[in-house]
């Protein structure tokens, strides 16, 4: 059936052998692939997952945040940032109570606030 279709050098029609690659392409491919792949006791190196802001250093307020962190110190800055985030979450919660939004909508608003904070540079 594959010989009835007059397509030369196509592996799509059932010709999976080396004849579909002719000339220099096939020999270059054979030379580029090692005959034995060493597995031995090579150590697999994996990157550690990092919780990092992809917009770090970007955003309108990022320079102010970085300067403040350098002046105040990292530990104290993280404490202040944590308090500010908690206060903002409380404000969102109170807003959701006042308009009658459920917990799922409240969580969506908190996530939206986090994304906006990242974009604006508050989490730099």
From TrEMBL:
Example of a GO biological process term: response to high light intensity
Gene Ontology CC annotation, any one: chloroplast
Transmembrane segments: none
Signal peptide: none
GO molecular function, one term: electron transfer activity
Classification via PANTHER family: PROTEIN PROTON GRADIENT REGULATION 5, CHLOROPLASTIC
Protein name: Proton gradient regulation 5
Organism: Acacia crassicarpa
Lineage: Eukaryota, Viridiplantae, Streptophyta, Embryophyta, Tracheophyta
């Amino acid at each position: 059936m594959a010989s009835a279709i007059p397509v030369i050098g196509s592996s799509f029609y059932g010709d999976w052998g080396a004849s579909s690659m002719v000339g220099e392409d096939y020999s270059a491919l054979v030379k580029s692939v090692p005959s034995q792949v060493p597995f031995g006791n090579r150590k697999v190196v994996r990157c550690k997952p990092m919780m990092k802001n992809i917009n770090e250093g970007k955003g309108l307020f990022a320079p102010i945040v970085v300067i403040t962190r350098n002046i105040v110190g990292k530990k104290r800055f993280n404490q202040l940032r944590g308090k500010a985030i908690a206060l903002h979450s409380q404000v969102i919660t109170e807003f959701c109570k006042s308009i009658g939004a459920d917990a799922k909508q409240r969580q969506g608003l908190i996530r939206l606030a986090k994304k906006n904070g990242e974009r604006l540079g508050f989490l730099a």
